[in-house]
Amino acid sequence: MGCKHSEGVTQRLARIAGQVNGIRDMVEEGRPCGELLMQLSSASRALTQVARLVMTEHLAHCVAEGFSTGDEAAVVEDLTRALEQFAKMK
Q1: Are 59 and 1 in contact (CB under 8 A)?
Q2: What is the pLDDT of residues 4-56, one digit of tens each?
Q3: What is the CATH number of domain 8-87?
Q4: Which of 90, 76, 83 is nearest to 1 (CA)?
Q5: Exposure check for the chain: N or C terminus, fewer CB within 10 A?
Q6: Runs of H (alpha helix) within the chain
Q7: Rounded Cα gap, residues 33 and 56, in angstroms
Q8: Kindly report the CA angle at 9 between 40 and 74, in degrees rounded to 5?
């Protein structure tokens, strides 16, 4: 089942990529551990927010579409896998 994601997902991931590059630069500069941990925590929260958005889009589009086409068993199986992956985020 192919999924289309909103531009918001792409934009957030680009922002996170920039943030991770900035963290790498901080490591190379020898910045204090506290600063690094703060930025790593921020990046982790941002990834969790993207995961929530992807899950919301999955429910709104993929799951709804699957139920409308009558393929309930496959949708439930796919949703179960998605929820298991989402639960591993933290």
Answers
A1: no
A2: 889 999 999 999 999 999 999 999 999 999 999 999 999 999 999 999 999 99
A3: 1.20.58.1000
A4: 76
A5: C
A6: 7-29, 33-57, 64-68, 72-87
A7: 34
A8: 110
Rounded Cα distance between 25 and 35, Å, is: 12
**Tokens coding 42:** 């921020």
The residue type of 50 is V
Kindly state the tokens that stand for 69: 């086409």
Crossing angle of the two packed helices 33-57 and 7-29, in degrees rounded to 10: 170
Count CB neighbours of 76 within 10 A: 13
Write out the two tokens for 68. Answer: 């409308």
